[in-house]
Known about the structure:
Elements: E1 3-8, H1 12-15, H2 30-38, E2 45-53, H3 57-61, E3 95-100, E4 112-117, E5 122-123, H4 124-133, E6 138-144, H5 146-159, E7 163-167, E8 171-172, H6 178-185, E9 191-194
Parallel strand pairs: 1-2, 1-6, 2-3, 6-7, 6-8, 7-9
Antiparallel strand pairs: 3-4, 4-5
Helix pairs in contact: 5-6
Amino acid sequence: MAGxxxxxxxxxxxxMASGALPVPDAEAIVAPMTEWLSALDPxxxxxxxxxxxxxxxxxxxxxxxxxxxxIHCVRGTPGWESVLDTAAIGPxxxxxxxxxxxxxxxxxxxxxxxxxxxxxxxxxxRFFQRLADQGVxxxxxxxxxxxxxxxxxxxxxIARGFDxxxxxxxxxxxxxxxxxxxxxxxxxxxxxxxx
Length: 195
């Protein structure tokens, strides 16, 4: 059965050293991630979801996140944009986007998955239920930051019955690396850390 891929927050503000909130060594995973995306087999890939941390200055100022981090990923700014080109993904593979205003892609009610190609816009929870109904059991999660948004994406997938693969070469963290996150998550569900 085909697997599904989630690329978490590969945005300029997180990935580039000049960004508003750079994740250490994140620039180093851009080229290998692009290569990995371009090598995905359409017969083995049900789709790719790109998440976007998305903020509005007035709302962000009053958020819990603002107590920890400076404003970043303001929608419509260069810092909000992805460093990855979805054209690297084979044209037969559906590509989707999910904009989220908090760390955890599962926390906000009413979020929608937007089809960038090959599908329809759909409620996030219905989208993942549909994947499960189609027999997708494994989701590969890559991106930044391992100890924040990647972790919560994986936790939510485990809670929804998916097996999660975390390729260490395609993930970077702020304080903790993906190895520590995978060890912790492994106690809650099926998690595989790969090279």
